[in-house]
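Continuing the batch. This is chain 6 of the set; chains 1 through 5 are on the previous pages. Same settings as before, nothing changed between runs. Recording input and output for traceability.
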Amino acid sequence: MRFPLLAGSVFSLGLLLVASACTTETIIQTVPPDNADDGSSGSSGRGSSGRKPSTSSGGEEEEEEGSSSGGSSSGGSSSGGSSGGPSQGLKSDVLAQGTVSLLGLAGDDAIYFEFSQDTLSLRAVPIAGGAPTKIADIGDNDDAVVSGGAVAIWTSISGRRGTLNVWTRATGLKTNVATDSVYGLFAASEDGTRIAFSQNATLNEEGTALQSTQVGIRDTDAASDAATLTGTTAVNLVTQSCPPYWGFVGKVFIAAHCTGTASAGSIATNAKVLRVPDGAPATVTRLDAASLTVAGTAVPFWIADATASKVLYITTSNSQARVAQVGGDTLDFDTNVAQVLLLSDGSAVIYRKATGELVKATTADKPVTTTLAEGVKAVVALSRDERKLTFRKLDRTAQGLSDLHVVDHTAATPSPVAIESTAAVFPTGFTATSSHALFLGDFSATGPALKAIPVGGGTATAIATGTIVGALSPAKGTGVVFLSNPKQLGTPPSAFNVFDLNFVDVSGGQTAKINESVPQGEYVFRGKRLVYSKLAAQGSGLYAVTLP
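Output for chain 6:
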């Protein structure tokens, strides 16, 4: 499923950096994200940080724009040892040595770019350790993205179109899946067995810009489409205000995008919401209207329950939240909705109105509504157990600081609790157990404190201090990975940031260093397994550590 994330942003001396973790397990389901201007997790563009490392004359790794040459790489791997790791702290396994850039996870494989003296290749290595597999060489006009359990590689890209090739661990590399495929327009199921992709994209009459693209949906090992979005369901590539929003729920494909070829007007802003079930052939159904051919009505966005039987979308006419039920009637909720989420079991929607009311409504035929809070400026995060929400009631400061409140929407009488009533903290989400809310606070000249507070009531405690710039929760446990000691490599506009990664548990105990010189955005969780890359004069490579 594709959802915006509200966790993992980085605070640094008044500057919000784009350094979210490319997490594979969604914990936040809300739109628009409160930190939409802060960046989100990425899995494309030659590494999550978008960097192209090379070896400078001084021996220190730094970015060189437009060059893929780099330090030597052995291409080897090791399931043990901690070469390149800290002298003390948590022991990391070496997955690959050399100059690499982590792209993301496809199933239980880490996907990464490996830079050698004059070549760039895309590789996969099991996160548990093992021998890397070379997927493909990457040329100057090639690029790749990771989605779900699959990797899409475009070759010979020109004007954003190229030849699409797809890799999964089960199928290996399937070449020439589609031609005239738009780079980046790709989605895959979590198990990698079902894919959706751009195909047969067309240009305008002048041949100078993209106009429209079909969408193919098929099993990854199939030779032809199970369904094709074409004609009145093809994607409008002219509009700048209606980006396609695609994703899979299990093997069900859901898309929200504008159609036609207009650059302005309602056709360029009103999306159609479409659903394509598993199987072949598969019948395309319209969720926001009764017919495939009538004009779009929705914002390019959706959220589905875990079975894809309920799909929430927002209308463009009056910002109304609606839930389309497969085989049932569409449920109408409030208008003037600014943020919204759908619980994974489909039992309720929670939304913030532009006027500040935070409301929960059941998805029964006759919805029951409960006001959770008033005067809310933004929902910040939803706990993994989907019971608690944090939100703010004040505008954020220029440094990104805000107040912070929490409410349990499952309580018989929901009562918000103020964690911090002034704009003095930077929220970083919840622990995976949903037992604690996390935030940066007590800012000083030496940096903030990473603090945790029990959501059931209690006092916030500092669990780490220093030059902390962000925190991320693994998918399991009460541990927290936090980023510290930020450094900038290279020079603008080609500069990027590296950090130290550290671990601490909210239940107490000493901070353990994981590693240093980790590029911004190049860290991803799978359960308690953390995969990350390192870029330094010594010890560059791809690593994984099992967190306590």
